[in-house]
Amino acid sequence: MGELMHHNSIYEQVSSEKLYAHILKTEGIKHYKINPQALDNCADYLAAEFASYGLATKSHEFTVDGAPGSFRNIEAVLGDQSKPAILITSHYDTIDSSPGANDNGSGMAAMLEAARVLAGSSLKKHCVRFVCFTLEELHPRPYEASYQKLRECALVDDQRRYKTNRMHQAVKEFYRAFRMSLSKGSGYGAATASAFAVVQPGLETHEQEYFRHIAGQFAELKGPADWIGKTAIVGSTLYVEKALEEKIAMEAVLNLETIGYTSKLKNSQRLPSPLFKLLPHYRTSFRKMAGDFICVVGDKNSRRLAKVFCRQCRLPGIELPYARIALPLDFDGIARRIRTILRSDHAPFWRTGIPALMITDTADYRFPFYHTEADTIDKLDFGFIRKVCQASVAAVLELDARHR
């Protein structure tokens, strides 16, 4: 009972005001091409915050083909680094047109606040690694090639806006059809062919040339998970590779990805499949399809971890509505059947068999401002973000107390 009360006093320290302040400070486009200074400033901010909590802090620097200079993952460690690690992760970059308050300012802020609150804790059998990744959104190489093709085909102006509404709509429709085809199990070649067939009838020759270029890029990807680290999720892929080389033991990962938007409106939530209505859930109802819960996604190796996290959601003072997806599949099975669930920094951990959760508000399945200019701080539910952060803090403490 005493230990439970102690854990309670720790997670109650999570502050909505501090969560808000982090996003207020870092909101804005953080993209290597469009606003590299903001990307760099955010990395500096992360490092300074971690250091102010008294944590051992370092940058994991790397270079990638297609972009000048270097990039930084920012890592801070609480406790004895020789012990097995529990990780809380997020990413701090954005796409080239979004201020990213939710994707992923919300996850980054919760990670920072978890670090502050846990910094005074004495861990028994673990250390905690707080890692914020860059280049989650898109690898510079395909980004540069795509933009150059748009310019060659005279499809964008100097502000990178499509010159016609026809092209603007065609791009959205192409990727919608592409993702739909992938979700049904198609390979990349078949998915691009299907998507191109959808948009081709309304396009002029030079516009078709651009989509053929995109199809060619995807054709270079062989297996269903070949894109991870090659077109997106770059920083975390390289981090995992480096951690394994250094023989860092990683027992559990809580990946906070777009966690800040809720809606109680009926039918504000979509699901990838009607079967998802059968998911274990708490304090939410799939009859209304309201987007009022956090989604906890785990693979075959992460079932225990998912149960631990969801148990914290039920604690007095947290009572966070959730839906739990515990897929009975390993990484390869997920890549073949439900690859859209790999769209964040948990994927490289799953690929190596490390238990990891994607903790998310479900992004574009709920958030109407996903990857748009309207992803701003005023859209976020800070009471909800606080509960997600509290559950993350409590999960770390339970994992450390109940070492297997």
Describe the structure.
By secondary structure, this protein is α/β, with parallel strands linked by helices. It has two domains: 2-138 and 229-401, Aminopeptidase (3-Layer(aba) Sandwich), CATH 3.40.630.10; 140-219, no CATH class. The chain is 42% helix and 13% strand. The chain has 13 helices and nine strands. It has helices at residues 2-11, 16-26, 36-52, 101-118, 140-152, 165-183, 188-199, 205-219, 234-245, 303-313, 331-337, 347-351, 382-401, and strands at 56-62, 71-78, 85-91, 127-133, 250-256, 281-282, 294-298, 322-326, 356-360. It has a nine-stranded mixed beta sheet, with helices on both faces. The radius of gyration is 21 Å and the shape is globular.
Mind sketching the topology for me?
Layout: H1 2-11, H2 16-26, H3 36-52, E1 56-62, E2 71-78, E3 85-91, H4 101-118, E4 127-133, H5 140-152, H6 165-183, H7 188-199, H8 205-219, H9 234-245, E5 250-256, E6 281-282, E7 294-298, H10 303-313, E8 322-326, H11 331-337, H12 347-351, E9 356-360, H13 382-401
Helix pairs in contact: 1-13, 2-4, 2-13, 4-13, 5-8, 6-7, 7-8, 10-13
